[in-house]
Design a protein that fits this description.
Blueprint (H helix, E strand, L loop, with lengths): L1 E11 L8 E8 L2 E6 L5 E7 L4 E4 L1 E3 L7 H4 L4 H4 L3 E6 L17 H4 L4 H6 L18 H11 L4 E7 H9 L8 H16 L4 E5 L10 H13 L3 E5 L7 H15 L2 E4 L13 H11 L5 E5 L4 E5 L13 H8 L2 H11 L10 E3 L12 H8 L3 H11 L5 E5 L3 H9 L3 E3 L20 H14 L6 H8 L1 H6 L16 E4 L20 E6 L2 E5 L2 E2 L12
Parallel strand pairs: 1-4, 1-5, 6-7, 7-8, 8-9, 9-10, 10-11, 11-12, 12-16
Antiparallel strand pairs: 1-2, 2-3, 5-17, 13-15, 14-15, 17-18, 18-19, 19-20
Length: 536
């Protein structure tokens, strides 16, 4: 048999969690077609992996790269970590379906999609209601993905906030019976077109005001499609345990598989709740399927306006900005934010902002420069940035971090959108998890800081493939897609930092996506083999 590519002499970690073996791998027509002694077999390209480790491509179990993969199809920050597949549409926000007055998250919304629209002018893509994205349905998005041909694969969840806001608007209320029917129809269409499940973002409006029953009824639709329900829970701090109970109740009553996003206990007063959190999840696993994911950092990241009280967050972006710019309402906001205890703002860093001098600076530093107190500095930034200010929040325990990552049902998810040190995604100030999550966890396993290396590889390959029902992915196995990494254990390193995040990881020697050699000898090639992974 002649192969397109033959990988020889590597140490094989197949993604199952088993210890390393030694064999050759033959690739033909984008698939692994043979594993064993292939020394006598011919191939168009031979790759010598002597002294290197070969594993399945990593699966980022929690990503927000939905639209970014079309803007920067090199997917550089992920490819250099060995990520070959991303799970998109998390935390209640997805690129599709777009309906009504829904507006995409601020970091997607402020990007220029005109080149994508021009590139696809011969393809019948429907403009969304906000006239920004050249797609509307999941089918449209899939077509754009296929034509753009990113370097890596992606699967898409339907965001509940995307669904609800597009049909019901942003006011804090439950859906009417007619609106529920429209949501059912839209969700069913999205699943028919390839979405793999439903995600919720219950800490964000409008989901934060939606009754539990709405989520349950929508999750029932997902269950009928053998999909899954993922959730950014209502609380990851003071109400953590109650939020876990709610997530379990939604999944149990709907029959959907459950994925708890970025499991954590935020705020030092809540760090001691992690054992009880583990206990609730383990107890429920005896009667239902529950998975989770986590990134290997103790700081979270979201829009800085997450600190606003809930009453101020409803009605959509324009309504929030109007409150900020109305003197008596701003005074009320200021007074409530001033009630945070001393030292609270010391752990808040400014991320993306129009003010270059404030990127990567802690809020108290910014306040000194502006000659304001921390609350006034915060309100000034989010106001003048039109709610596009990023915030990085140092609120988690390092000990808890490694305990969470060691839980057998926890896969590795960056919770970050892909970036590149060049092009349209190189100008903001992301959390370093966008460039380093999987590299950092791999380095920790190699150094003996976390679970053994075979298990660590499983948490980035076979486990998320199983959790998200990705067929023929996540393992080195005959018949499986040729998503394959070859890395140098001695050179694996994250270079990204909070102060200087746009730094690519090191140590990946070769990365194959569906048999396309997109990273060769540590350098990005022009080959891009990514595909949209539809529900099957």
């Amino acid at each position: 048999m002649e192969f397109d590519i033959k990988i020889m002499n590597g140490n094989i970690l197949d993604g199952s969690g088993k210890t390393a073996t030694h064999c050759d791998i033959g690739i033909k027509n984008n698939r692994i077609t043979k594993m064993g002694d292939l020394s006598d077999a011919k191939a168009e390209k031979n790759v010598d992996a002597t002294g290197l480790t070969v594993s399945p491509g990593f699966i980022d179990a929690h990503s927000h790269s939905d639209t970014y993969l079309l803007l920067e199809p090199s997917a550089a920050s992920k490819v250099y970590q060995g990520i070959t597949t991303e799970i998109c549409g998390n935390c209640g926000a997805s690129a599709a379906p777009l309906n009504g007055g829904y507006k995409m998250p601020s970091d997607w919304l402020d990007k220029d999609y005109s080149a994508i629209r021009d590139k696809f002018h011969t393809f019948k893509c429907v403009k969304s209601a906000q006239h920004i994205a050249p797609w509307q349905t999941v089918s449209d998005y899939r077509a754009c993905y296929s034509l753009s041909k990113p370097a890596i694969n992606a699967a898409l969840l339907v965001g509940h906030n995307t669904l609800h806001a597009g049909i019901c608007g942003y006011e804090p209320r439950a859906a009417t019976a007619d609106e529920m029917k429209k949501m059912f129809q839209t969700l069913e269409q999205a699943l028919d077109e390839g979405a793999i499940g439903l995600s919720s973002g219950l800490a964000y409006p409008p989901g934060s005001a939606v009754p539990r029953e709405e989520i349950i009824e929508l999750a029932k639709v997902v269950a009928q499609y053998d999909g899954l329900y993922t959730t950014h829970m209502r609380s990851e701090s003071g109400g953590l345990l109650e939020a876990i109970d709610e997530a379990i109740d939604i999944a149990e009553r709907s029959g959907a598989k459950l994925q708890i996003s970025h499991l954590k206990a935020s705020g030092s007063d809540n760090w001691n709740k992690i054992d009880a959190a583990f206990g609730r999840i383990r107890a429920a696993q005896s009667r239902m399927q529950i998975g989770s994911d986590r990134y290997p950092y103790t700081a979270g990241c979201t829009d800085l306006d997450i600190v606003l009280p809930l009453w101020a967050t409803y009605g959509g972006r324009d309504a929030i900005l109007e409150r900020l710019r109305t003197s008596n309402v701003r005074k009320k906001l200021r007074n409530e934010l001033m009630e945070h205890p001393d030292g609270y703002w010391d752990n808040v860093m400014v991320g993306s902002t129009q003010y270059e001098e404030f990127k990567g600076k802690y809020l108290p530093e910014v306040a000194v420069t502006l000659n304001l107190n921390e609350v006034d500095a915060l309100l000034k930034l989010i106001d003048e940035d039109d709610l596009k200010t990023g915030g990085i929040f140092f609120s988690m325990s390092d000990d808890n971090l490694w305990r969470v990552l060691a839980e057998p049902y926890v896969s590795i998810g960056s919770d970050g959108s892909m970036r590149a040190p060049w092009g349209p995604l190189s100008h903001d100030h992301p959390h370093p998890r966008a460039y380093g999550s999987h590299t950092k966890f791999l380095r920790a396993a190699l150094d003996g800081k976390t679970v053994p290396l075979p298990e660590a590889i499983h948490k980035m390959t076979g486990l998320p493939a199983e959790q998200f029902n990705l067929k023929n992915r996540g393992l080195l196995k005959e018949g499986y897609a040729a998503d394959i990494l070859i890395f140098d254990p001695d050179r694996i390193k994250e270079n990204t930092t909070y102060a200087d995040p746009h730094q690519l990881s090191e140590g990946m020697v070769h990365v194959f996506v569906n048999g396309f050699h997109c990273l060769e000898d540590g350098k990005h090639t022009e080959l891009r083999g990514g595909t949209f992974l539809a529900r099957k």
